[in-house]
Design a protein that fits this description.
- This protein is an alpha+beta fold.
- It has six helices and four strands, in the order ββααααααββ.
- A hairpin with a 2-residue loop joins strand 1 and strand 2.
Length: 154
């Protein structure tokens, strides 16, 4: 991992306060209040990050091999996507993802148990009213006589 160094003696290359860019022009806040600039350029954010125990652990890890070497080791036949997965994740996880196949890209209501239950209830002609309720949610289904276009029944 590459360590980023900051020269803390030079003046930061940014202003202490910025306005808001609105309608193509810089405008001062109406309230007159500004927020602290937490840009990593000023070193304060990087100092906090560098002081974390996890940062020290990550710095101690060996660096990733050069891409050319990884390509040879992992397989030059791999697609870019699979190459990146295998270079950054445990092989078992990548193999499991590939075995599972692509994620479903469409909604199939026949796979949803609530929709299956509702269809089964709708098939029972003797039921005229079904209510499902839980905190923050209520679903009511009522069966009425035939409704003609444009009519409203409650």
């Amino acid at each position: 991992m590459t360590k980023v160094e900051f020269n803390r003696t030079s003046k930061p290359p940014f202003k202490a306060r910025y306005g808001n860019y609105i309608g193509g022009a810089w405008r001062e806040p109406v309230s007159g209040k500004y927020f602290e600039n937490t840009s990593p350029i000023n070193g304060q954010v990087m100092d906090r990050i560098e002081s974390l125990p996890r940062t020290k652990e990550l710095r101690a890890e060996p660096p990733m091999a050069p891409l050319g070497e990884l390509r040879k080791r992992l397989g030059e036949h791999l697609s870019d996507e699979e190459f990146l997965l295998r270079a950054t994740m445990p092989a078992g996880q990548v193999d499991a993802m590939r075995a599972a196949g692509p994620a479903a890209r469409h909604y199939n209501p026949t796979l949803k148990p609530v929709m299956t239950l509702l269809r089964q209830l709708a098939a029972h002609r003797e039921l005229s009213h079904v209510s499902v309720e839980k905190p923050g949610f209520k679903l009511e289904l009522r069966r009425h006589g035939r409704v003609t276009r444009g009519s409203t029944q409650s």
